[in-house]
Specification:
366 residues; dynein; cell projection; cytoskeleton; microtubule; dynein heavy chain binding; 7 strands; single chain; alpha/beta; seven-stranded mixed sheet
Length: 366
């Protein structure tokens, strides 16, 4: 019997991989598509980050999308799951990262947002409609935290692939291409969606409050070229629409059709389907000096909303997180929790150092 030579097997496997890569390149050339590796990857893999207000239904949204009949649990820190879909011979994977704690833990976005997946990532910000005094500040802090991480990633990526920034910018503008408000908008670098949660309770608010909150949500979504959806896990038609939104972001399926901008109904507005003219001016109380302080439309809206619903950051809800509740003090368990926190910080640090080392090696090999 002829003995197996592991090096020959390895060489044969390498030749097979090279031949497959050549076949892909030839097919792309024949099709006339100058498609990057990230663009090929985009067809079969995605990263969706779900964050937002505390206890507003983020986990329920994910479970409905995955068709899991489970009771949602409180999200502590950053949790990962995934969904799969088969299309013919292709298997698509959607990586879902859920961030708990409102906007306090936005630094953990460095884990799902990496140079390797920045071009296949999207963001979902879920806001509690029943807490208008926290709505704007929560959205603003999460947008700022995500944008800061994206900028860090782009600084890393641009040393090797300067065109990534241009592609992200072009894709962002494409979401609102041809719109008369394009020059007034600030399309977010990655696809983004705002989800107004607890609509089943919000629909019972006073009409004027509903109108102003709806206008503010519409402005945010249009300004960032985002999807806008009002959602409730207790209303089947809205739960179905929420599932369709995640499927659209994770698997590039068709977005739900139609548009709804009536404040008496649950809002649904795809990117580029609204306008600042239709939204109207922000609610400015008589005698307000807001218009004098604000230099940009978004600053004008921020000040106006803050006058109607003074914004305050959500307090950490220790009553639901037993690890922080003084009534449940357990020294041994507390030590383990603290160790887990240190481990998480160390993991984030090591991940960054590893990515930096990989980039240095790539630069040396060039």
């Amino acid at each position: 019997m002829t003995s197996l030579n592991i090096w020959e097997l390895a060489k044969e496997k390498l030749r097979e991989n090279q031949e497959k890569a050549m076949e892909i390149d030839e097919k792309l050339e024949d099709d006339g598509n100058a498609m990057s590796v990230n663009e090929i990857k985009r067809r079969h893999e995605s990263v969706v980050i779900i964050c937002g207000s505390q206890n507003c239904g983020k986990s329920s949204l994910v479970l409905r999308f995955l068709e899991r009949n489970e009771n949602p649990k409180m999200t502590i820190g950053l949790e990962y799951t995934y969904g799969r879909r088969t299309r013919g011979n292709n298997k698509d994977v959607g990586h879902l990262w859920e961030l708990g704690g409102g906007s306090r833990l936005s630094s953990l976005l460095s884990i799902p947002l990496t140079p390797q997946n920045i071009e296949i990532a999207s963001l979902v910000i879920v806001l509690d409609l029943t807490k208008p005094h926290e709505l704007w500040i929560t959205a603003e802090k999460l947008i700022e935290g995500t944008r800061a991480r994206i900028n860090d990633v782009l600084r890393e990526v641009n040393r090797l692939t300067p065109t990534v920034h241009d592609r992200l910018l072009a894709n962002a503008k494409a979401r609102i291409a041809g719109h008369s408000d394009l020059t007034l908008c600030d399309p977010f670098p990655i696809p983004i969606a705002f989800v107004g949660a607890k609509y089943d309770e919000f629909q019972n608010f006073e009409s004027d409050d509903r109108r102003q909150i709806c206008k503010a949500m519409r402005f945010l979504a249009h300004h960032y070229a985002a999807n806008l959806l009002f959602y409730s896990s207790k209303m089947e038609n809205l739960a179905v629409r929420g599932r369709a939104l995640l499927s659209h972001l994770a698997f590039s399926t068709a977005n739900s059709k139609g548009i709804s901008t009536d404040h008496n109904k649950p809002l649904f507005v795809p990117p580029g389907q609204d306008s600042f003219e239709d939204i109207g001016a922000p609610p400015l109380p008589q005698g307000s000096f807001t218009s004098l302080r604000a230099s940009q439309p978004i600053a004008l809206w921020r000040e106006a909303i803050n006058e109607m619903f003074p914004q305050k950051e959500a307090k950490e809800q220790t009553g639901d997180d037993l690890t922080e509740d003084p009534l449940f003090v357990e020294p041994q368990i507390d030590k383990l929790v603290e160790q887990k926190r240190r481990d998480l910080e160390m993991y984030v640090k090591q991940k960054r150092e590893r990515q930096a080392a990989e980039e240095r090696i790539k630069l040396k090999l060039k």
